[in-house]
Amino acid sequence: MKAVILAAGEGKRCRPLTLTRSKVMLPVANKPILEHIINALVKNDIKEIILVVGYEKERIMDYFEDGINFGVKIKYVEQKAQIGTAHAILQARDQIGKDEDKFIVVNGDTIIGPDAIADLINGEEGDATTLLTCKKDDVSGYGVIVAKGKKVIEIIEKPKTLISHLINTGIYLFKNDIFDMIEKTSISTTGEYAITDTIQMMIDEGRPVTTTVTNAGWIDAVYSWNLLEANTIILGDFETDVSKAKIEDCVSIKGSVSIGKNTTIRAGSYIVGPVVIGDNCDIGPNVVILPSTSIGNNVSIASFSYIKNSILMQDVRVSTHSNISSSVIGSNVITGPNFITEEGEKLHIILENELNEAEKLGTVIGDDTDIGGNVLVRAGKMVSSNCRISSGKTIAEDVPTNALIN
Questions:
Q1: Are 267 and 232 within 8 A, CB to CB?
Q2: Which of 185, 201, 222, 366 is deepest in the core (most CB within 10 A)?
Q3: How far is CA 258 from CA 25, 40, 240, 270, 290, in A?
Q4: 229 within some domain
């Protein structure tokens, strides 16, 4: 069986991180979201993958290439205009071919476990289109499935009242006739061709559409701060491996900690897992790293710094006496000494003209930003890409792209 992964969108609600990469390439536990999806497919013996790319496609193609290093065979098709999921799936028609009886479609910006894919495959019934669903108490912001037994009656996008606890995961098992149905789909009020509209049309025409419910791992990182929750969950499956690292004397390591090759952990450092640290890093001396932290490749963290529940991407430089909590730091960010991210809970954040709530957050900093010494970022305030912030500043408002704060 082949799988189509939809990876063409930007992910605007994850800005500023997606100003320089697509959402599918955001790292969780030091691997892009898309890599976690591919690994889940491989564990179900699905190794022919069609990637529908668009926004920042070169970054995806350079990383995955032909897929051989990931145990799969990847073919790429481009969605030149991001005008909906149905339109994206249609781009894969030629690669699927007429002889392919069925195939899987996965949204490339959600993290799934192999058991979720297995549940979808095992839930197939005859000629029916199959939707993978899961149950959530809070269904706001999701597409909701109304079903009678396994039969899908209706798909309702983001209902304002509680109709069902079954939400659409964006993972489907389709038959080849889905392409003909997509061509009959009308454009929605949002200007897109949505696959949920196609499926609803199939339901209205009396075609069989069923749902299978999964209790397996499925994480939808809608906003940049959701990456922290996803990171915590994925790190829970890691095992300790420090065999390739250089660990100096008087280092304390507790819990599940994975450290990459050519990484040095200097004397007096204290690490409590789950934590993953990449290759070619220089940590310490006397650095504290606490649970649910991912540190990418080529990162240096200078002495007497404290990192907790955070994601530091590649090529980050953290100077001495810094305190980073519940934050996501983009690639190639440099901070001066005494850099502090204030941590807050149940923060109200305006993003894309919508008011959203973050359960717990320090800050999110975009790529290529240079921050001076003695800088404090207030809880929930975001710093965009390619910014320059002088020493001694308190950041109490969001900082736009290319900003210079003297």
A1: no
A2: 366
A3: 21, 21, 5, 14, 13
A4: no
Domain that holds residue 175: 2-221
Q: How do 334-335 and 354-361 pair as beta strands?
A: unpaired
Which residues of the chain fall short of a pLDDT of 50? none
For residue 71, which of 48, 97, 99 has the smallest C-alpha distance?
48
What is the CATH classification number for the domain harbouring 397? 2.160.10.10
Residue 137: is it exposed, middle or buried by C-beta count within 10 angstroms (0-12/13-18/19+)? Answer: exposed
Query: Are 238 and 215 found together in one domain?
Result: no
**What confidence score (pLDDT) does residue 78 get?**
93
What's the rounded Cα separation, in Å, for the pair 150 and 172?
Answer: 14
pLDDT tens, position by position, 214-227? 888 788 888 899 99
Per-residue pLDDT, 217? 74
pLDDT of residue 165: 83
Strand runs labelled E in 302-353:
306-308, 311-312, 317-318, 323-325, 328-329, 334-335, 340-341, 344-351
Q: How many domains does the chain contain in total?
A: 2
Query: Do 28 and 35 contact (CB within 8 A), yes or no?
Result: no
Per the CB < 8 A criterion, the answer to whether 25 and 7 are in contact is no
